[in-house]
Protein 1
Amino acid sequence: MLLFEKTKAVTRNNKIPPKSQYSGPLTDPVVCCEAPLAAQILGVDHPDVAPLLQAETERVTQAVLDKLPLLLDHFGIPREASDKWLQLSYKLARAHVSGFQTVDPKKAGAPQEWGELELAALHIEVGILTKQGMTAMDACRALVRLPDGGWRFPRSRDAKTLYRRYQQAKKLPLSVFVSNIPDAEIKQIVQESIVETVAEDKTPR
């Protein structure tokens, strides 16, 4: 599961990506019933009215809860995942809370093609290959030979250049932070999310 993927609102290119477009029942609000006539006459605090209001509250709550599995599907989270609610909470925060989103710093001149996320993604991908027995340089050679390597790794069309970027990425605070996440499952989720975010952003349109 990919927590860092580019979801809604403020992102590096300030565009709302496709996953922000909810569909089906997720676009339909739950309609509350009008207050029963008894409530209008006797008041909401009357003991005969309270059960009616409680029943309506429970109906609305259940209708909302019934849509949660659809949110899991929307964000690509397996319904059987043991941490599905953690994943959903994170993705909703990334989608709708500005403090959970990332933007590139504003700098004068032409925009850089390599940002922190790109470097962090490179560090992660090289790390995956080195764990399989490759050296870092061999991993860089393998990455630049990928069919999508030309646009995923801008201005790094050869292994030596990519290797220099990898050395730069190793010192990046984000790379250090991700490498030191103690929980292996959460670490994998964050790593995959960073890689997918960069891949989606760099995909040729």
Protein 2
Amino acid sequence: MLTGLSFVLINSSFMLTGVFFIGSGLLFVPMYLLFKPIVKDLIKMANRSTNMKRVNKLRSAEVTAMLDLLGELDNGTHGDFGGFDSFGIESSRQLKGQINSYRAEKLSKLLGKSVSKMHLIGFAKNANYDYSMTSQDFNRFIDSNLEGFKCYWYFSKNVYINNV
């Protein structure tokens, strides 16, 4: 039966050791093991920068996934992961050349991810660009396919995050 810390020794290598009486014997335990929970907390605090780096990598992966989704829509490609059709997004090729920075920002916010304008500047079009879809047509298309976009976004985002 362990009766508690009886006294502390400093052994030949100058390591603090706790001495416990157990029945008729003695148990010598290094002091750092006695304070292991405290040491764990200190290590967690020391790893703050490591944790912040990980959080930043996850954010970056989400932004990359969103930019790829928007790029695939603007380029008129069929999308990854079996295509947009497999996620319930019908006629996604209608959006070819229809994504500008404003529409990209609106779609990303609808999907729950805000992307900085610096990243969306790549979707800017010339002032003379002729859109085949009006803003109302674009909004109707997005609203009618919003669940499909959410499913695609969720799946795509997780693929990118798992690769971090």
